[in-house]
Amino acid sequence: MIWPWRRRRREAELDAEIQGHLAMAARDHEAQGESPREAAYAARREFGNATLVKEVTRQMWGGTWFEQLGQDLRFAGRQLRRSPGFSVVAVLTLSLGIGANATIYSIVHPVLLSSLPYPGGDRIVALAQSMYQGRITFTPTSDLVDAWRTRSRSFEAVAAYRNVEWTLTDRGDAEMVRGVEIGPEMPSFLGVAPLVGRPFTPDDARLGAAPVALLSEGLWRRRFGGRSDIVGQTVTLDRRQHTIVGVMPRDFGRWILGDADQRQAFVPLVRETGVAALNAVGRLRTGVTMQQATKELSAISVAEAGSARDAPAADVRPIRAWQIQYYGTTLRLLFGAVGLVLLIACANVANLFLVRAWSRQREFGIRTAIGASRGRLARQLLTESAALSLLSGVVGTVVAWRAIPIIATLRPPMMGFLDDARIDPAALAFTLCLAAVTGMAFGIAPALFAARRPVGDTLKDTSRTMAGHAGSRRFRGTLVVVEIALSTVLLISAGLLIRSLIARVRSDDALFPKGLMSVTLELPAAGYPSAAARADAFNRIVERVRSVPGVEAASLAMGSPWQRGVRLAELEIQGRAAPSDHEPVMLGYDQVQPEYFRAVGASLLAGRIFRGDPDEHAVVVSQAFSRRFFPSGGALGARVRFGKTGEWETVAGVVGDIPFPGATSSSGSETVYEPASGTFLPSGGTVARASVVTLAANASAILPFITRSVMAMDSSVRVRGASTATAALAQTRAQPRFVMTLLSAFAALALVLASVGLYGVVAYSVRQRTHEIGVRVALGADAENVLGLVLRQGLSVAFLGIAFGLAGAAAVTRLMRSQLFGIGPLDPATFVAVAGVLALVTLAASYLPARAALRVDPAEALRYE
Amino acid sequence: MASENRPLSRIELLQGTLDLIILQTLRWGPRHGYGITQLIRAGSKDALQVDTGSLYPALHRLERQKFIAAEWLISENNQRVRVYSLTDRGRKQLAAERSRWAQMSDAIAGLMKPMPEAES
Hints:
Chain A is α+β, with helices and mostly antiparallel strands. Chain A folds into 4 domains: 4-61; 121-323, no CATH class; 328-506 and 734-863, no CATH class; 516-697, no CATH class. In chain A, 53% of the residues lie in helices and 16% in strands. In chain A, the strands form 3 sheets. In chain A, strands 1, 2, 3, 4, 5, 6, 7, 8, 9, 10 and 11 form an 11-stranded mixed β-sheet that branches. In chain A, strand 3 and strand 4 form a beta hairpin. In chain A, helix 5 runs antiparallel to helix 22 and helix 6 (142-151) packs across helix 9. The longest helix of chain A is centred in the middle third of the chain and has 43 residues, at 469-511. Chain B has a domain at 50-102: Arc Repressor Mutant, subunit A. Chain B contains 4 helices and 3 strands, in the order αβααββα. Chain B has helices spanning 10-26, 33-43, 52-64, 88-112, and strands at residues 31-32, 68-74, 80-86. In chain B, strands 1-3-2 form a 3-stranded antiparallel β-sheet. The longest helix of chain B is centred in the C-terminal third of the chain and has 25 residues, at 88-112. Chain B starts with 9 loop residues before the first helix and ends in an 8-residue tail after the last helix. In chain B, 27% of the residues are buried. Chain A binds chain B through residues 13-14, 16-18, 20-21, 23-25, 27-28, 47-49, 52-53, 56-57, 59-62, and chain B through 32-35, 38, 51-53, 56-57, 60-61, 64, 72, 75, 77, 79-82.
């Protein structure tokens, strides 16, 4: 091994040694009577290829590997600088492909993690209950969680929590803070210690204990200035002073307790107050399966309920399965789309490298002729494509780094996990390797081919007649066909989503009358112990709202019209066979006042609206209900009841359907309306909840006024949510809009890449055919002929790609049916429009290089080479 | 260094042979590269012509293996030349190589003897 600093001297010595050899040989030739010039020439001829001799001799010194790497890198840099067009296009293509993939992968990968970054994270499961063979699932009560915790043997630990909201009234303006009630076991369950202070103790969670709170790091810094003496101070949540016992780190509860803004503060979950709905997580003991745990918990549920008939089964499933159930399709769709973009980028890079390698055959030939080995050439090219990939990786990282926050700002409200997205190194490495391998595979093959051919052939070749070109051109044409086909699929998918969203906006606009709004109220059951007191309080509020100028109708309801409750019920119709226990029907269900139907714009189709008196035993049903259960008429006056213990009620009237926002058909809008009883208290609940649904001419203007006057009336009433129908429906479209935006961006990117690919193929072929075009022009071909010649080539590739793309899209758009609204997956308008757009774009991509063919000067072209 | 037990491939034989020839040539005293080519040519009655592309790598390899040593001298024509000479280690190597060469030469000579005509 020779150290680099000794190497230069050694090189000079080798040069001197060889010079000495040549001088002595020349002298001997001169001694035989040759002229000095002839002698020197003869000596050199005898010696052979001095450069090669030096090269192989140097290899004997050892340590050449590094030296050659340095050479290769310098050479690669020179090459890339020499053809800036190639370098820029290749780096841009690759970095966009890499960046897009790293972005989506960084967002999606943590969500799809099978194991959570907690102690025993792969054994953490969600504990819930299910009924009707799993057709509905729901959260357990706090009593049941306690029973499961104390009596099951399947779990190392069970922890419970509940997401809540408070009004924080300390230090500055009041604000709504979302936080979590956590069992005192939660910090140790997640293996997280407080940054400051202590976690909760079991004593903190006892009924009547002094109220305490843990702050999140974010709230601590934002609202309390990150002071280190925070422990012992107080925070006022819902007008109750809580003593702060500590601060939890930013990531505490990430993946389980909710998004960052949903876990700003924590209070102990008080065990003794029977809470109706609690989220529970458990860590399975090693070796215990989810089936075993389900069986054990179900048995405990039965023991608690006292009979098997009343006890819902336990439902144990991986926590991820719970969390991604609403956006699994979305994520898969994005994954698929960005994968296609990467494929297109790789095809483009393959194309670029092929063109470049073929056009450098002469160079490779010359280098072989002066003694470069195939291995050396291959290494050189590997270095070049590695340098290019590395550069693209850097740019791609920047792209992902800039793109992730942008995507986070576009995210729909329920996908808050996006806020936590960071660049995923694994994704970056993967895409980088893929790009490098593509570049190498397509860059090296032609070079090796060139090196294998007899040197003379390569050197004699002109670029015009270079062998292998027909095959290469066909192959590159195929690559572009694939690119265009893939972009067609993406464009059609994006087009379908755009059309769906437009259809949804239109349908949503027609869903409710203009000026509909809803205010959701909560009444603490403790302050209003009787149903009558609660009914009175709610009614006073509605009366107050009705008296506001501009309000046309106001009614109590269980929820806002766009988030209506459904009920899985055992519907029984008098005079027909009773349904079996296991055949419940899914029905829309609401308790409303008579004015409700005017407010939401559901017109009376038959009969009458009930008067609103609970003793009336009358219900109103929707048209869809009447059609489904009374297909031959006779709904009016029929008597129905829910469950064997329900009371018989008479159908008094039939009203028009209100479809669910985003529902594709009226199925699901079978609804039963009962008169508002005024209690609105779930069994075992501590808070009565109802909405005031209001129709007013200038809804958005008077909404804040209504909110304020309700709060002024009764300070114990809390306003949970207040929104106009227009705003709320726009919110429900946030997720489709998000998917559509991203997919459109990917489709646009794909289109650009494919156009660049097509442009490249046509432009290169024009350059290759300069001579031929020159001959044609010389023989009298006019501009039209020449243009036609070139365009035909580009367009035949393009149209083949579009045709394959349309067929491919027809095959795959079925998979996104659940994301579509109002149109089928084969929507003809989308297909035609996309085909049209692609035809235009590809025409442009072929026309630009074709114009270059027009400028060919026949005299010049014929002299060329 | 080729181990004794390994079958001799063609490349190894050629390479080993060139090394042997170089060492043998240097036995008569220090020489420069050009001198070695001339000597081999003359010694083999022009039958062997050593390619410089093999000679110089071989010289540098042998130097690295410390079988030969190199120093810069001024030739009679007042020119700086790199002169190689045999080291003690090289002398031992030469002896070993020579006996191996003799064995192999015997073996090949034995094989090349007229065949006993057993089959016909």
